[in-house]
Amino acid sequence: MTQANRLSGGQIDHNTALEFTFDGKRYAGHPGDTLASALLANNVRLMGRSFKYHRPRGPLTAGSEEPNAIVELRSGARQEPNTRATTAELFDGLSATSQNRWPSLAFDAMAINDRFSNFLTAGFYYKTFMWPAAFWEKIYEPIIRKAAGLGSLSMQADPDEYDKGFRHCDLLIIGAGPAGLSAALTAGRAGKHVILADEDFRMGGRLNAETFAVADMAGADWATQTVAELSALSNVRLMPRTTVIGAFDHGICGAVERISDHLVTPPKGKPRQILWRIYAAQTLLCAGATERSIAFENNDRPGIMLAASMRAYANRWAATPAPRVAIFTNNDDGHRTACDLHAKGVKIAGVIDIRPDAPRSRDYEVLQGAHVTDTKGRLGLTFVDVRLADGTARTIECGALGVSGGWNPNVHLTCHQRGRPAWNDALAAFAPGGTLPPGMSVAGAANGAFSTHGALKSGADAARKALGLKGRAPALPRAEDAPVAQTPFWYVEGCARAWLDQQNDVTVKDVKLSYQEGFRSVEHLKRYTTLGMATDQGKTSNMGGLAIMAELAGKSIPEVGTTIFRPPYTPTSIGVLAGRMRGKEFHPTRLTPSHYWAEERGAVFVEVGNWLRAQWFPLPGETHWRQSVDREVTATRASVGVCDCTTLGKIDVQGTDAATFLNKVYCNGFAKLAVGKTRYGLMLREDGIAMDDGTAARLAEDQFVVTTTTANAARAYQHMEFVRQCLMPDADVQLISTTEAWAQYAVAGPNSRHLLQKIVDSDYDISNEGFPFMACGNITICSGLRARLFRISFSGELAFEIAVPARYGDALMRRLMAEGEEFDVTPYGTEALGVMRIEKGHAAGNELNGTTTALNLGMGRMVSKAKDSIGSKLSERPGLNEADTLMQVGLRPVNTSDKITAGGHLMRAAGPVDAAHDQGYVTSAAFSPTLGCMIGLGFLKDGGNRHGETLRLVSPVTDLSVAVEVVSAHFVDPEGARVRA
Amino acid sequence: MHDLKPITALGGTTPRVDTVGETTLAEVPDLALASVAARAGREQACAKHLKALIGAQAPSPGKTWQTDHYSAVWMGPDQWMISADFATHEDIAATLKSQLEGIASVTEQTDAWACFDLSGPRVFAVLELLYNINLLQFKTGDATRTSIHHLGCFVICMKPDHMVRILGPRASAGSLHHAITTAMTSAL
Amino acid sequence: MIINHPLLGPRDSAEFVNLGAAELMNRPDPETATPEDWHDYAYLRDNPAGAHRELWFHEGGDRSILIVTRDTTTHEITAVELARNRGQRHDPGK
What we know:
Chain B is an alpha+beta fold.
């Protein structure tokens, strides 16, 4: 495990070895390494294969803009595809695998694509897979998907946890390079609440990668010292390993903090990552700049990388891609790389500079006015072909080539609210301009201040300006201030297979083809060639493509335009976007007070909204749910049953105008309801369609307790608040939800009164005379517990609903069971509840389905004409009141063994079965143990006048066709004698 | 005196206590609650009566106060949540109602809520994983209603970074408890 | 987005539910409105590119409904007021 390409120095701990594997082979690196730097130190240049042609590739960069060195990290359920080796922090035990190759990275069978590259040019898919259309889904797409693509998924659930969090600050500084550190010092010393976020695990930005001095010490040391000062300030929060992925409305930024990505597994209970929502009064973008490349023939071989990245590997990570390297540059920055590597003992094979007047060096050869024309080396660079200023050719032997084409400010976050960067002639690059997101400013290299001094100064100035700091600006540490001199040079004449977008395999030739075929606007160029559409969003490639298009069109770059960037800034895991909201934690769970009791009874639960409700209570020996449900229905109708109905929405409506208010929200009247009485109420939407129903119990002249359906509780409350605040702001009415405050149980069946009489205190008369049907009132039970009693019935039996404070709900249920033993009391669940309400013909959610009116529901006469209520006027519309309008009916099979299916449609006994002859549809169906056959509720044209008619219930999807008879929806006790007993 | 045995919001017979490091989450079942909403046009009278009744000015938006027996939290415009010790004030709603007849609408809220006290060092590190309120400005006496994992909750600051009280919907006490304890493990 | 609540200060829009256009507050007078008025009220909405008055219900907060004026092209919010203050005529000193 020798690290042949390891240099001395840098910000790694040479004394500690970390072991890791890449494609199964073991290597060693050091703390402070990235996977890419450790692999380079181990003389591994080949790290991936390209997307389309499967060309061998190595790292192009040393940062998050990396298009090539994309690997899979970890294995098993933690396997993570498409991770950039250039940002993956090395840890002991890291296992990485190359991707998009078969059978191995060195021999990839799909590299055959590269031989057919003439066919696979831009637009290949659009042109080739046009027809026949039916082939696309079954044949073309699966083949293409198999051949293309990057990493693979483990297909297992992610075992790790992710959090979301919220932080506030006066100033969010994005990027901790010289500008960001300088800004943080300025704002932090002024006592402002500062968040300094940086995607790197070591703060300092380019200071860590350069040999410049700052304040007479090494830049990296100044960064370390500054970070130490900042971390001592309680008003400054440092967030390393944190990528700000998006700038959203009103100063809100999204940031992903990688808490445990540098560990083998997260410590128990700790998240892998946190998605922070940062509320920043001001945001300062100090994201630095990205070096740009130069396109030349075969410029994508492993070992060819950006010159400043090569310098970063040498200075920060003490690694060189090869012992002998060359540089190809159009500016002075490339020479810095040569100097620094030379100083570290790396052999400089030559600096190829396009400028005839390029500076010379005593330490190595500078080829002035020269170009790289081609390169060689199948799995890694071996030679570069150079054309010298005098036109002669020369071949240079080297294992790596640093390419420097100048720098582009990192403008990405300035574009997230459709801000468009502006061309800056002095920089020969796009810089932030036009409209920035409100509250955002930009400093340092991101704003074109490329020198260290410029970055320090602009960071401090921008922080002072953003925060409105007064007084004299503090002195800045001394630092280099080299002028910016960027002369654009995008590609070497005559090249064809010269890569612009290395991740999506877009060449100079592809851009030319796009131009020839008329796709000349930037947006068309992108989509036709896929330039900039890979996971790196073209950070290293967009400019080159744009420049070539401009040249072909004979326009300037700003005339051709630029593309803007969308969030996220770098690829973001789906897991962190979901946070804790996955599986059972997707939404909160609501439990009724009798839940634990029901669990003990072995209840089967069903989710209704967020509630868990007992669906039925199986007894030993019952093997099918129908057995349990039939028993619960029969027992309730025969004696007494108890059902938890806590989940119904309960809203306390008080005030002198409470009755007036209810008159407005319900279509039927409430003004005359006597105190101590309950009434069914139907709420309409303003367009006349039924919205929700429930009961309103008048507990006092100025107090009602209103119930809503379980599913619609939040919506109904919202609607009532709208009416109260927006339509009746003068009315004296107050609303508050009391749903969870009370445990409420339906006690139903002929023995329900007998059971309740055993627990209701004797002060309260609940006989039929003393407490008639629809009565309500405050009572006490079990010697003094306050309770509410309502004589209402959903089942059609003599029934009550009794409510006690929720904490006593569990005890009350147990008491009802104990006291009810003599009546064989039976707890029943939502299924039995549903069967009984269908038997009784009560409408529920299936009938109040967002398309039905009061008239459809058989409650047309309930809509009061004596008063105005929400929906009353529009429910009078002719279209809702035609002669053959749908009316609710009951349905039973002519042959009692036949099934009735909800969702089936009704057709005449004879004649065509099609939509034109549709007579109506079935909304609810159940087996009725009371009637001994299936029954249904449905809507039928002119249904009120068609009782006795035989129809066909059809479901063409399931080939169902059953003869059914139209009957009254009230299958059980149509006269209502039982409820009044 | 009735003999029905209460259970806590988390379903236990005794309140639940969880500790992570030096930080403790304690279920608080002994709280009696009632909401008081001024009747239209009686807003000032209501505030005056509340002051006489409870001994302090009705709190302004986003605020809370505490006296010997009562505490109050601003819930909404001209609406407050009054709380007191359950053992002595289980009838809090009836008491307030009798004294605010015609001036305010009073509604019993005791069992609408689950109450948790979160105390110890670095409580704010837990809260920042739970909700979006600006903790830099969350001072003693602040009470805010917001969403924690989709649950509408009140968070009351007793001592910045050291003690908060969280009231959440009782039926979701389990989900809320899970959210807070996982955040404690994550943050501390 | 952040909505500057008149009583509670800046709050995340995630705490709110959008209830639609503020014109919903202008319910026709049932005594005098024509069927066309009702039709307009129930079904017709402006969809401006620019300033738009809309209702936001503070469901995760104090349950106030706010009238928020928001530029639909930039999300800039220029005015926020309590819906219940519109037309309220009670004398709070009574």
